[in-house]
Structures are given as C-alpha cells and as structure tokens.
Amino acid sequence: MKARMVAIASDHAGVEMKEMLKAELGTLGYEAIDLGTQGGASVDYPDYAHALAEWVEKHEGSKGVLICGSGIGMSIAANRHKGIRAALVHNGEEAALARGHNDANVLCLGARLIGSDAAKDVLKIFLATEFEGGRHEKRVEKLG
Questions:
Q1: Catalytic: 108?
Q2: pLDDT by residue (tens digit) across 30-69?
Q3: What does the pLDDT look like over 69-88, one tens digit per residue?
Q4: Whole-prediction pTM value?
C-alpha cells in the first residue's frame, strides 16, 4: 500500500519539532513531504506557510503541518489561501474539533508552546479525525 502524504514545513524555530514529527508521520504510515526549512538560520515563516498552502491546494484532500515558535504566524499566513483551513492547536481536544467541526486541512503548532509528546498526540488525533459534515458543512462552505 502506498503511503499517504502529508506536507510539513517550519521556520527556524520549528525545525527540531518538524524533524521529530516527520519521524512520527512515518510511524503512523504517512510519507512526509518536507518543504523546509532545513537549518537553524533565521528565515521568514510566511515563505514556508505559503509553500505548504500551495502544496495542499494542489493535492486535493491532502493535509499539512506548519510549525513556528508560536504557531500564530504560520496559521495567519496559511489562511490567506483559498481552500486552506489552518488551525492552531495545543491539545488533542482542539485537534479533534478542528478536524471534526471545521474540516481543518493544515495543523499549526507552536514549537515553543507545546511539548514533543503533546505534539505527537495532536498530530495523531488530527490525522485520524474525520470531518463530521452535517450541521458543520454549511458553516465550512461559508469560509470560502
């Protein structure tokens, strides 16, 4: 069976967590598509958020993970793209709600605000939770 693909990107503050989550994606049976950055040199987070958002837009039904220091900048930048529903998540309950109620397709994490175990848990729940549709469908449609 071919691995499912998930795009992942970070700025310099999120590189360490990105590498850890790439390994976790493999454990969960996903192929991580690493869109950068690769080192600790200071970079501009919008460049990576836009690259990931464009990848998700081009791959219907796909998901992405963005990581920066707080997760806020990445979520703001990604949500500028039509069809992207990026959610800044801190725990499993938020991950389940982001997917189940909002059909989020991009998970945003703050590397300076969430620990490794929590980030792995959030990723697993985000990927495993299906959109509930129903009463949430018309609301998501209004997002554009």
A1: no
A2: 999 999 999 999 999 999 999 999 999 999 999 999 999 9
A3: 999 999 999 999 999 999 99
A4: 0.96
Set 59, 68, 90, 136: catalytic member: 68
CB 11 within 8 A of CB 44: yes
Range(s) of the domain holding residue 39: 4-141
Q: What is the CATH number of the domain that holds 39?
A: 3.40.1400.10
Tally of domains in the chain: 1
pLDDT more than 90, % of the chain? 97
Q: Which two tokens stand for residue 93?
A: 């309950």
- Using CB atoms within 10 Å of the CB of residue 111, give its burial: 0 to 12 exposed, 13 to 18 middle, 19+ buried: buried
What is the number of other CB atoms lying within 10 angstroms of the CB of residue 107? 30
Residue from 59, 81, 90, 101 carrying the catalytic annotation: 101
Residue 90 designated active-site: no
